[in-house]
Amino acid sequence: MSLFKHTTRPTHPAVRAKTRRAEAAGSGLGETVRTIVYALLIAAVVRTVAFEPFNIPSGSMIPTLLVGDYLFVSKPSYGFSRFSLPFSPDLFSGRIMNSLPHRGDVAVFRYTRDTSIDYIKRIVGLPGDRIQVKGGQLFLNGVQVPRTDEGDYVAVDEQRRELAGRLYTETLPGSGGHAGVRHQILRLTDEGQQNNTPEYVVPPGYFFAMGDNRDDSADSRFMDDLGYVPLENLVGKAELIFFSYDARYPVWQFWEWPVEIRWGRLFHWVH
User: Does the pLDDT of residue 20 top 80, yes or no?
Assistant: First the structure.
């Protein structure tokens, strides 16, 4: 019987170096994937409980918000409902850590007829408030809301149509210990259903929203459309415009991109 002694042959230095490089590459790829996963998780958490970005696709909030504005919305401002969560799972009803909005807040909420759609308007009426528009003038609880004429104003809507009207500064009365809110509105006419309404009484658990572009906004004045908005539908309060551009040119004309950016609107607070 013969015995064979098993010996391990030494690995060539070049082979060892290649193995180390492969292990390092594998480790680097794993770290990259892990970093991406962590970043996505952190972004999802921030988007759910802190701030969510939105863009403005229509002209209903001109002059406060323009088509092409991008803004951050604060989620904790009004507490959390199922609409604060991605895909709006029906896990609970009502609001957690509920906080009533204030008159004058610019808020994002879910459309009453289809809660998959986000709307943004200004809150002008809270539960129990009486709202009416007469001859284009807003009345709150029987008192005319003061406004100051700021002169002519021309805006451009999402269809690139020019909207020529008058610019006003309106002052809504305060609520919940907060001072009144001064903000601008655009008026195109004093005629039409939107400028001569019945008196609305905001029911408990709801609010009344209007666009600052008073004659080009589908809002709570139209009961067969938006109507009163449940407080549960609130997503958050609009806080900061972080980017804005005016898409005047086709997207392929990349050399025009710098001209389209509204540099003066970047990092402006929403009022």
Answer: no
Judged against a pLDDT cut of 80, whether residue 163 lies above it is answered with yes
What count of other Cβ atoms lies within 10 Å of the Cβ of residue 75?
22
Coil, helix or strand for 100? coil
Element (H, E) at 13: helix 13-49
Q: Is the pTM of this model over 0.85?
A: no
Name the architecture of domain 50-269.
Answer: Ribbon (2.10)
Are the C-beta atoms of residues 134 and 193 closer than 8 Å to each other?
no
Catalytic-residue membership of 27: no
18 catalytically annotated: no
Q: Which of 58, 60, 81, 217 is catalytic?
A: 60
Residues 245 and 237: beta-carbon distance below 8 Å: no
Beta bridge partners of 166: 152, 187
Domain ranges of the chain: 14-49, 50-269
Neighbours of 17 (CB within 10 A): 11
Q: Token pair of 67, please?
A: 């088509």
